[in-house]
Design brief:
The protein has eleven helices and twelve strands. By secondary structure, the protein is an alpha/beta fold.
Length: 357
């Protein structure tokens, strides 16, 4: 795994990093240069392949990554107008994620780095998500509060700097994205659940159903979405004409999730006094959530930052950026194909030296 060292990159120019993302069902490649920013990014989503199964099939995901990594790398280099000889390091997602998918990306990245005589950098998937808004034109400064909402994680994180993360609250069971997927399946809307629920909710009528806002009436910053999923299941089983009420149920579910996330985030901002909020992860693409959280700018004087929609879900650009910052700090991955399917964010250590971006 990645090990901090006491030396920084000594190249006269800022390095160009190839990022490799294969933590789940997206194969993402990107090139990030310290002098010119993001040069190119390519992505293959496996959504259509996994939709027939109602979720990601790990072995199929790993095999598809194998087929896509080399052509996507070639396309990324072509878009950037670079050759492999102009790349300075290879960054890859080492965890958390699906073990087989992670190993596929790790093996590719480590082998390519060895063949080219380049350093490899192991990247934490959630750290990459947290840094994704730094790819935008007006990147947030440290410190900030982060709301990380994805298929596997729902967390409120106090971010002091690179590798300095304190978990303030997290889901005790289902993550928000997982609840979207399961609710979409209950409603027969298909996979992935987030876009399907959002589309159905836009056709729904407000007020026909109301679901609980889990743990919003309790102190603390933790989340729980399993009870909300159960409430939707009970509603679906009692509904005689589900097809006629599907959109209304989707809207009520989306409202419950968004209000829960908004309430806990507002509480965290008040408790920490933080003036900057970063929202990242796949669920951060939800329009209702973006609109409600953006409203905090007026009500609380908070600067809210989101990644662009293409970088909310898994992608190589955020991995290249995170790898770039870790590389500047002197980090290198050791030899071997070691990944961490489970890797708590708050176990990450800050780099020994953080060089300028």
């Amino acid at each position: 795994m990645s090990t901090p060292t006491s030396t920084t990159t000594t190249a006269t120019r800022r390095p160009c990093v190839l990022g490799v993302e294969t933590s789940c069902d997206e194969t993402g490649l990107a090139l990030y240069c310290g002098e010119r920013g993001l040069l190119a990014h390519t992505l293959h989503s496996q959504t259509a392949m996994h939709a027939q199964w109602g979720g990601v099939v790990p072995e199929l995901a790993s095999r598809e990554h194998l087929y896509r990594l080399i052509p996507l790398t070639a396309e990324c280099l072509r878009q950037a107008g670079l050759t492999l000889a102009e790349v300075d390091a290879i960054a890859y997602t080492a965890g958390p994620g699906l073990a087989g998918a992670l190993l596929t990306g790790c093996g590719f990245a480590q082998s390519l780095a060895w063949a080219l005589g380049l350093p490899a950098v192991a990247v934490h998937h959630l750290e990459a998500h947290l840094l994704a808004p730094l790819l935008e034109d007006a990147p947030p400064d440290f410190p900030f509060l982060a709301l990380l909402v994805s298929g596997g994680h729902t967390q409120l994180v106090a971010v002091e700097g690179l590798g300095q993360y304190q978990i303030l609250g997290e889901s005790l069971d289902d993550a928000a994205g997982e609840a979207f997927d399961k609710t979409a399946k209950l409603l027969g809307l298909g996979y992935p659940g987030g876009p399907q629920i959002q589309a159905a909710a836009q056709r729904g009528t407000t007020g026909r159903y109301r679901f609980p806002r889990p743990m919003l009436d309790r102190p603390g910053l933790d989340f729980s979405f399993s009870g909300l999923k159960t409430a939707v299941l009970t509603c679906v089983q009692a509904e005689a004409d589900l097809a006629a009420r599907c959109d209304d149920i989707a809207l009520a579910f989306e409202e419950a999730v968004v209000e829960t996330l908004l309430g806990k985030t507002r509480r965290a901002l008040e408790e920490t006094g933080c003036a900057r909020l970063v929202v990242a992860g796949g669920v951060s693409a939800n329009r209702r959530l973006r609109s409600r959280l953006t409203g905090l700018t007026d009500s609380h004087g908070v600067q809210v930052s989101f990644p662009r929609l293409a970088f909310c879900t898994d992608n190589g650009a955020m991995v290249a950026l995170a790898g770039y910052h870790r590389l500047l700090a002197g980090e290198r991955a050791g030899p071997g194909f070691t990944v961490r399917p489970r890797w708590p964010l708050d176990t990450l250590a800050p780099p020994a030296i953080v060089a300028g971006a």
